């Protein structure tokens, strides 16, 4: 840590720096959410433009989760050695480059390549910003993680809704993606100076050895697998579900993910208070059960309105599962927060790696509603396992 951080730990005045770090952390969560969710309305366009069926699209989407999963062990090491600020800025700018390219791919090979790259840089942003959030939460002394993730959900709402709105009024897909990319890059460059400067220097090198993550990090990662699978189902398949199963136009299908993201915002901005009052175990148990009920509603009850209600329930239920797990991982003893979070998110992104393909395979064999019902069953298991976050 730098001298400002050391001063905060020692009780010396560092409020302006800490306030700036909180603001910058919120902004990078917002940017990451916008960048990732902007892809959701593009999925039906890519499917139609390239002539893909459900199984082919599912296999192509493997690259997104695969890129993140493969990069995260190295990202944890880089964040540990170079500092979270350096990694946040570099990977955030690289993320912006992917958006207009995703709108221009002309064949499945290009789609796979760009999704692989997109997954790598989003995974880097994810690990570094969550490790930075753990440091800020520790310095602040209160519960902040759900609020940080709430800004990610605001980004999810903003990115999906804004992209869908631009497409609905006739803005070309490439132009819409390019505008978002430029705006996000400007924000990343602006917030850089407020991030905690935790890079090692000649006076304070990082000599501590790389240790294996705590055993609980692996267990948390298995539960994170299911949660990421559920969120990935919303990102990659909600628009397809509304278009192909409920008959909504492609230009408006992205609003399903926007409803999900709006519910995530509500849940996460109230999450720090809820977790502080009732504890992380209750937050995780109740949330997983509510998300399971939402998936069952979407899968089993016909009608666009009921599907949107189901998306809202999924968002409310899933809103605090990941923040609770990340906060727990960042506080594990004898493990660097970046490495612990990298372990949890790596296993989580295995859910993004296998989830879209599995959902696509089940949809191809039976139906997309049946695939959603399977996700509900996995979330019930998470609810029964909530005691681990104690």
From TrEMBL:
Subcellular locations according to the entry: Membrane
Domain Major facilitator superfamily (MFS) profile residue range list: 21-390
Pfam families tied to this protein: MFS_1
Membrane topology: Multi-pass membrane protein
SUPFAM superfamilies according to UniProt: MFS general substrate transporter
GO CC, any one term: membrane
Chain segments annotated as transmembrane: 27-46, 58-79, 86-105, 111-129, 150-169, 175-195, 216-235, 247-267, 288-318, 338-363, 370-389
A Gene Ontology molecular function term of the record: transmembrane transporter activity
InterPro entries documented for this protein: MFS, MFS_dom, MFS_trans_sf, MFS_Transporter
Main location: membrane
Keywords: Membrane, Transmembrane, Transmembrane helix
Name under which the protein is recorded: MFS transporter
Native organism: Dyella japonica DSM 16301
